[in-house]
Amino acid sequence: EIVLTQSPGTLSLSPGERATLSCRASQSVSNTYLAWYQQKPGQAPRLLIYGASSRATGIPDRFSGSGSGTDFTLTISRLEPEDVAVYYCQQYGSSPQTFGLGTKVEIK
Amino acid sequence: EVQLVESGGGLVQPGGSLRLSCAASGFTFSSYWMHWVRQAPGKGLVWVSRINSDGSSTSYADPVKGRFTISRDNAKNTLYLQMNSLTAEDTAVYYCARGVTVAFISPWSYWGQGTLVTVSS
Fold first, then answer.
1. Which of chain A's termini has less CB crowding within 10 Å, N or C?
2. Residues B51, B57: contact at Cβ < 8 Å?
């Protein structure tokens, strides 16, 4: 099973700042089958990024993904108050599909 | 509009059983792999089970293997999760989810609102 390690655990930034979230895999993620999800309190997860760098439908362009192999990054270029959430990475190319433990993004 | 609506959660005693349902609408249900994912209180997301489009292929996470059974009724556009021999570790919000595409390998773009299962005496 591929283990995904996300860092940092919590990120506290001011509005307008750049947020950089990391996801490291225990082994190479095949074909960049890596996704990022946003989950706000009391809500279901929302797909942001798939294929490591493709934005899902309706996702603002301030969200971007990059990386390959074992190291992946989600970047929020200019943090907005509504971006407060927990962000999870997921690999979906190997069974079982696995998630990281999440990075909580807070507004200072 | 794609909709997934879970039901069937609740309080159950250890060792008990529960059946969750996920009613799908707004898409051709019979074309898609479907998944169950759970989230224990304050914890992260964990994949539980998946089923292919016609129900002939299923897979389970190790912690639920032999206790949970996933199934579907394509005539009723409904996904099920039969959960037996429940323990406190099964306490979680259970989500059903659908892929972006009909392919086996696909991230999950549609999720239900979740149904809470609490296992406690």
1. C
2. yes
Q: What are the CA-CA distances from residue B15 to residues B21, B40, B47, B93, B119 (Å)?
A: 20, 18, 22, 18, 9
Model pLDDT for residues B37-52, shown as the tens digit of each residue: 999 999 999 999 999 9
Contact B114/A44, CB-based, under 8 Å?
A: yes
Are residues A103 and A5 in contact, defined by beta-carbon separation less than 8 angstroms?
no
Which residues of chain A from 45 to 64 reach within 8 Å of chain B, CB to CB? 45-47, 50, 56-57
B59 to chain A, minimum CA–CA distance in Å? Answer: 9
Long-range contacts of A55-63 (CB under 8 A, 24+ apart): A56/B100, A56/B107, A56/B109, A57/B109, A63/A36
The pLDDT tens digits for A2-47 are: 999 999 999 999 999 999 999 999 999 987 899 999 999 999 999 9
- Cβ of residue A99 closer than 8 Å to a chain B Cβ: yes
pLDDT of residue A57: 94
* Rounded Cα–Cα distance for residues B9 and B119 (Å): 10
The minimal CB distance from B59 to the residues A95, A99, A101 is found for: A95
For residues B48 and B106, is the Cβ–Cβ distance under 8 A? Answer: no
Q: Under an 8 A CB cutoff, do A99 and B100 touch? A: no
How many CB atoms lie under 10 A from the CB of residue B86? 22
